[in-house]
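Records of this kind hold a single protein each, on a pair of labelled lines. With that in mind, the following record should read easily:
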Amino acid sequence: MKRILLVVLVASFLFSGCATLDELSTETKKGAGIGAVAGGILGAVIDSDKPWRGAVIGASAGALAGGWIGSRTDNKSGESVVQADADVVSQAATEAAKQNTTIKYTRTTENGVEEEIIATPGEMTGKIRTVKVQYFRNGKLISTETRQVAV
């Protein structure tokens, strides 16, 4: 009876955070899934005395490691997109600084990804205006940078 109660308690604790799964990227979810399966199998093989214990520990550790690796992979792909659109980012920052108004560029890629660049002007010091540039993908903030633009 204690064992069943413990399993139910642990399961409820683990699944209580599932409401935030929608906020995770596809790469994070994929990495966590692959890590959980691989870790579970490896844990069951290593802990041959109690394979279920090894599977649970291995799956947990594998999910954490795989999710972290997937998250890192996703962030790096976002950085390369921002770098590829450097001309658009520079143009938005320049326009925002010169017009002293927020500039927003939006596009949909061939893969159906919605991308947005929002340049917001800030303080002006002499002939230099500070501009905050944000890059969004599918409504999620990917990166933010501050640029100094001569006006």
Summary: The chain has four helices and four strands.
